[in-house]
Amino acid sequence: MTRIIAGVAGGTPLISVPGTVTRPTTDRVKEALFSRLESMDALAGAHVLDLFAGSGSLGVESASRGAASVELVEYDGGAAGVCQRNAAIINDILGRKVVTVQRSKVESFLGRVRDTGVDRWDLVFMDPPYPLGEAAVTAALAALAPDLAPEAVIVLERSTRSPEPAWPAAVERFAEKKYGETRLWFAEPADGD
Fold first, then answer.
1. Which terminus of the chain, N or C, has fewer Cβ atoms within 10 Å?
2. 102-134 as b/e, with b when 16 or more CB fall inside 10 Å?
3. How confident is the model at residue 193 (pLDDT cuts 50, 70, 90)?
């Protein structure tokens, strides 16, 4: 069972996406990831974007731990419905609407956001399906780059069998960590100097 690990809603069970459409982040990986993010002071008051959200568990965890706003983006209809239900759970606990859901392809969503002048993202989770090609991952990172806050953190989750992403010029990796079959890549906006 997936759950919110810590924060205001710590211990609250979440709904999982049935079948094999998504690959949920394990509690072990989630605990390590959020411990690192909290040590970096990347959560409190952050505007969070969860791309390829699956059940939305990373975004919902962020809301429980003090994010100011969370946007879950998921294209699959079943998974987007689960995101809606998990968003409703955390919003009810928080007593206000912090988490919203967009049923959209990532590329389409990022194009619309740029056109509306939405605030920049402080923290971005990207957990694309493992079969998604490296070129598509790089394209998503490049499309995301103009909408990042100057001190933003991007967390990209991939299989340990996947190669390191080809980082676009506007984004640079600063760390990576392996947990079993999962590798987390940490990146930030390139300095530009």
1. C
2. bbbebeebbeebeeeeeeebbbbbbbbeeeeee
3. very low
